[in-house]
User: What shape does this take?
Amino acid sequence: MSEVTAPPAVQVSAQNSSPMTSVYRKRLIVHRIGITLSFLSMMIGIFFLMWILITLLIKGFGGVNLALFTQSTPAPGSEGGGLANAIVGSLMLVGAATLISTPIGIFAGIYLAEYGEKNKFAQVTRFVTDIMLSAPSIVIGLFVYALYVAKAHHFSGWAGTIAISLIAVPVVVRTTDNMLRLVPSSLLEAAFALGAPRWKVSMLVRLRAVQAGVVTGVLLALARISGETAPLLFTALNNQFFSVDMNTPMANLPVVIYQFAMSPYDNWRTLAWGGALLITFSVLGLNVLSRTLFSQKIPK
Assistant: This one.
């Protein structure tokens, strides 16, 4: 009995339906290479991150004690001392910048989300916001120096507040805008159908639906400005003594860490490591807090 040979079209179809064709094998190889490279990149990033954290723990833990939080920065060549004036100065600068940037950023984000589709001014605002997000912080510090410090003829905490506020505002604006755009249109249409005015829908429905995401954006902005050094070198500068007068130069952790780390004194370098450990884990804690405690699902 002679064998029955399948037609050529059926043979080609059977070959293409086989899971191990040359095209499939090539895609599988590319997929495995991509997964391997992604895994290696992740491991390299985690390795250097853990290296930094372990180094901070080893060298900075020795500088963390009660005096670090209760005593001011010591004079050159002296022993002891702490970073109390720098800690209080940083808290005042960051706190004032947060109070300034939060309402401005949230209201600007609401405006972009509500009127940013066809409004030319809103499109320009969004473009400028994106530029400020990527602008080097030292440029912002130089801008505030030329605009405020040079005309006032003295460094001050208010100048530092303005500089880091300009860094925080774009973060809050972009986060608020993106979060408000995630609110489903059906929720807004239901509010409009009940006769609610647009401002009330924006504030009491749309913003409330994503309030946790907006708080996350504020915390991320807070974490971003907590470690900025370059803008404060041009604006707040530093102060060896304890001061709460925002109209004078103020001590702050980033600048003190920079100056002490570059000094020839062992005591200053130990305090610099302690300050670096403090500010690093503070920023890390803010990031963890923003991604866990204030996480919220968008209503569907």
The chain has a mean pLDDT of 87.
